[in-house]
Write a structure and sequence with these properties.
The structure is a single chain. The protein has 2 helices and 6 strands; from the N terminus they run αββαββββ. The protein has about 150 residues and is an alpha+beta fold. It has a single domain, classed as Hotdog Thioesterase (Thiol Ester Dehydrase, Chain A). β4 and β5 form a beta hairpin. The longest helix has 17 residues. It starts with 7 loop residues before the first helix and ends with a strand. About 30% of the residues are buried.
């Protein structure tokens, strides 16, 4: 298993998300402002499983997109010039949902910044389980003051 670069406490020093909406558990690799690999351990007691769906727990696709966005935000907000700022959605394009993600899965979150112009960046994002694609999309993020 890969070495952990950042744990939840270290992630919370960079992005403002907190439980229950901090949706990444650790960062495995990062080239600041360029790419990141993060991870989410999908546990049986995740808040969304109570209603999505009772007796058939499936992680909502929109929450997996949020997980990818949070990973991308850690990558961008780790740049010194963005310290203390927040990342907001500017857009989500080309989203494809390819497999169900259920309790016990480990979701690998790979995000690469493919374009940046000032505080606006576009990321190519992929969430996978054991190398099998779960979600792919492009995310546009806007860095702003709190």
């Amino acid at each position: 298993m890969a070495e952990v670069l950042m744990n939840k406490e270290q992630i919370m020093e960079i992005i403002p998300h907190r439980d229950p909406f901090l949706l990444i558990d650790e960062v495995i690799e990062m080239e600041v402002g360029v790419r990141i690999k993060a991870r989410k351990y999908i546990k049986e007691d995740e808040f969304w499983f109570k209603g999505h769906f009772p007796n058939y727990p499936v992680t909502p696709g929109v929450l997996m997109v949020e997980m990818l966005a949070q990973a991308g935000a850690v990558c961008m907000l780790s740049k010194p010039e963005y310290s203390g700022k927040i990342g907001l959605f500017g857009g989500i394009d080309k989203a494809k949902f390819r497999r169900q993600v259920v309790p016990g899965d480990v979701l690998d979150l790979d995000v690469e910044i493919i374009k940046q112009r000032g505080p606006v960046s576009t990321c190519k994002a992929l969430a996978s389980v054991d190398g099998e694609k779960a979600v792919s999309c492009e995310i546009t993020c806007i860095i702003t003051d709190k």
